[in-house]
Amino acid sequence: MHEPLIEGLEEYLAGAARGARLAAIENHLAGCRSCRLAVAEMRAHQQLFQQLRSPEECCPAPGFYARVRQRIEARRTASIWSIFLEPAFSRRLSYASLALLAVLSAAVWQGSAEPVMDQGNPMVVFALELPDAPGLDPGHDRAVVLASLVAAGGDGDEVAALPVSSD
Question: Which stretches does DSSP call E strand in 26-114?
Answer without folding.
Answer: none
